[in-house]
Design goal:
The protein has helices at residues 18-28, 55-61, 124-133, 176-179; strands at residues 4-5, 9-16, 40-42, 46-51, 68-78, 82-89, 102-108, 141-144, 151-159, 163-165, 171-172. The chain has 183 residues and is an alpha+beta fold. It is elongated.
C-alpha cells in the first residue's frame, strides 16, 4: 500500500461517494444557465474542511479519516461565474476552517464577464457565499433547499502524491525527510 506524509496534503475534505456525485450533478447541474454554450468546469466531488492544513490540524482530523458522514444540502447559490450549494454535516464544525461549508458544483469560463477579465477557480464559491449573505446584486439565484436528499461522503485528504486518501493508514505524520521511504 502506498503511503504519504502530512507535508503532501493540499486539503482535508469530505469526498462524495459516486452516488452522491451523480445526485449533485443531476440536482444542480445542467440547465442552470441559459447560455449553455459557455464552457463549464465540473467539480461537485467534495466539501473542503481545511485548505493547506497545519500538522496540528492533520493530527486532529486523522482520527476521522475513512469515516462516512451524511451531508445535508442547505442553499443553492449561482452567479455568472460559479454555482455551489452550502451544506451541513454531522461532522463537528470544529474541524471546518473556512467561511461556509459547501460543495462547488461548477465554474463557467467567462473570460469576458468575470471580474478583472479572469476565469474563476473553485475557491470563488467562498466569495459567492459571502456575496449572497450581503445580498449582492450579482447573485443571480439563491434558494433555500428545505428538505433534500442526503448526500454521503468519506473524510479524507487530497495530497500532491496520492491524490484522494481516505485510508488513515496511508497518511503518516511528519515530512518525507523525517519518515524516509513511504512507498
Amino acid at each position: 500500500m502506498s503511503k504519504t506524509t502530512y507535508d503532501s496534503v493540499i486539503y482535508a475534505g469530505i469526498f462524495l461517494t459516486d452516488e452522491s456525485k451523480e445526485l449533485v450533478k443531476k440536482s444542480f447541474g445542467f440547465g442552470t444557465r441559459q447560455d449553455n454554450d459557455v464552457p463549464v468546469t465540473w467539480y461537485g466531488h467534495h466539501v473542503t474542511l481545511a485548505f493547506r492544513p497545519t500538522n496540528y490540524y492533520l493530527h486532529l482530523v486523522h482520527q476521522y479519516i475513512g469515516q462516512t458522514v451524511d451531508i445535508n444540502p442547505k442553499r443553492y447559490i449561482r452567479d455568472i461565474n460559479c454555482s455551489c450549494v452550502t451544506v451541513d454535516t454531522e461532522l463537528t464544525r470544529d474541524l471546518f476552517t473556512g467561511r461556509s461549508m459547501h460543495i462547488t458544483i461548477c465554474t463557467w469560463d467567462n473570460k469576458n464577464l468575470a471580474k478583472e477579465g479572469n476565469c474563476v477557480g473553485p475557491s470563488y464559491s467562498n466569495d459567492l457565499i459571502l456575496m449572497d449573505k450581503f445580498n449582492d446584486e450579482n447573485v443571480l439565484e439563491s434558494v433555500n433547499l428545505g428538505v433534500t436528499q442526503e448526500l454521503k461522503g468519506v473524510v479524507g485528504v487530497y495530497t500532491s502524491t496520492l491524490k484522494e486518501v481516505t485510508d488513515p493508514a496511508q497518511l503518516l505524520p511528519g515530512t518525507i525527510e523525517e519518515v524516509g521511504n513511504v512507498s
